[in-house]
Amino acid sequence: MLQTIHKKIKDIFVDFQSLFLFLSRLTIAYGFFELAKVKWNNISATAEWFGSVNIPLSTLNAYIVASTEALGVILLALGLFTRFITVPLMIIVAVAIVTVHLPHGFEAIDNGVEVPLYYMLFLFFFLSHGAGKFSLDHLVFGKEK
Asked: Is residue 13 part of a domain?
């Protein structure tokens, strides 16, 4: 009985996997868009803030992070080189978790690790599952096995 129900649910939703991947990519891309926009709007303040949380070479890293986030927005939205861009984005999120969010605990309301952890989980999801059918990756590289 449960196996039959499970199979029917799976059969229904397996066709929606690429749609859910597409919507997830757009959601995370939008989140990185906001982050990149804030950094680029005042890159000197971003560099100064990076220095205040002991990120070395703060000016260089401000430019690298802002550029990577901006590139991530474009590539995630298009679904192009999705697995490639997730790795540097994951590094950025990991550094943010350790340097900024971890001391505040888990709760998002306290600037804790909750929201960056969600970003990290979605990035792992993109890394392991790819971009799906609704992507340039699918057009360029074909169906993934």
From this structure: no
Identify the three-state secondary structure at position 129. Answer: helix
- Confidence check: pLDDT of 144 > 70: no
> If phi over 0 gives left and psi between -120 and 50 gives alpha, with beta otherwise, what is residue 79?
left
Does residue 8 form part of some domain?
no
H/E segment holding residue 110: none
Question: What letter represents residue 29's amino acid?
Answer: A
Q: State percent of the chain over pLDDT 90.
A: 86
pLDDT per residue as tens digits for the range 125-142 = 999 999 999 999 999 998
Please state, in angstroms and rounded to a whole number, the distance separating the CA atoms of residues 102 and 27: 23
Query: What is Dmax (Cα atoms) for the chain?
Result: 62
Q: Side chain identity at 8, as an amino acid letter?
A: K
Asked if 8 and 65 touch (Cβ cutoff 8 Å), the reply is no
Domain that holds residue 33: 20-141
